[in-house]
Amino acid sequence: MNPKYKRILLKLSGEALLGDKEYGIDTKVLVQFAEDLASVHEMGVQIGIVIGGGNIYRGVTSSSDGIDKVTGDQMGMLATIINSLALQNMLERKGIYTRLATAIEVNQIAEPYIRRRAIRHLEKNRIVILGAGTGHPYFTTDTAASLRAVELQADVIIKGTRVDGVYDSDPEKNPDAFRFQSISYLDVLTRNLEVMDMTAITLCRENNLPILVFNMNIPGNLKRLVMGEPVGTLVTHTSEIVD
Fold it and tell me: Is this model's pTM higher than 0.90 or not?
């Protein structure tokens, strides 16, 4: 059975790497993520990855401590590069060829992001990790993931979270929260659901790029999703909501 998607862009939050820790990177989580990515990579799926940096530094939170927004966001970009290096190292320990491409230049440890070069890496079946967000302050890594997914002509953007899809309220606080199997971009925006930020959702909507939201912490979930099984919530132009 062939995978449903040939080229994916996986968005991981920095918090996803925390595991049981309060700060930094949990190696057990890295190992699991690398194993899941390896299982999908073995099927010939082309993979791009964008990782956040919230497990190390959050510009939004720290701005209240006297650090201005621009500087805080730049520090957050560096945090994403740290996370990207950690994941790259774990993938390469499994024998997978990777490239780390960053939106800000750190030539000693990564190559600069160039769209055509990144696409060529994907075509050569290398996993491409995209660090430093968009390279600009005021843009989240969600927006960076949407932008890169559109630029690299991904079939879908996949957001790995701690919950198994999109809910009408926070399932970690409300046990009666309803999970959608599918929902439209417009409903996500009008209901102010915390799937991705408004800029990221709008970019996906304008480019007709599907979003899949799922629980990355369950081993094997990523492979099931790529094979087309009903894992998580699909965000497209259509919705299961009936007013």
Answer: yes
Q: Which H or E run contains 103?
A: none
What are all long-range contacts of 58-61, with beta carbons under 8 Å and residues at least 24 apart? 59/137
d(CA 135, CA 155): 24
CA distance 51 to 133: 8
Closest alpha carbon to 103 in 116, 91, 115, 94? 115
CATH of 7-236, one of 3.80.10.10, 1.25.40.10, 3.40.1160.10, 3.90.10.10: 3.40.1160.10
In terms of DSSP H, where are the helices of 63-124? 69-93, 115-123
**Sequence-ordered list of residues with C-beta below 8 angstroms from that of 150, at least 6 positions apart, any chain:** 203, 204, 207, 209
Assess contact for 200 and 145: CB atoms under 8 A. Answer: yes
Q: What is the pLDDT along the chain (243 residues), one digit of tens a residue?
A: 799 999 999 999 999 999 888 899 999 999 999 999 999 999 999 999 999 999 998 755 545 567 899 999 999 999 999 999 999 999 999 999 999 999 999 999 999 999 999 999 999 999 999 999 999 999 999 999 999 999 999 999 999 988 899 999 888 889 899 999 999 999 999 999 989 999 999 999 999 999 999 999 999 999 999 999 999 999 999 765 544
CA–CA gap between residue 33 and residue 12 (Å, rounded): 10
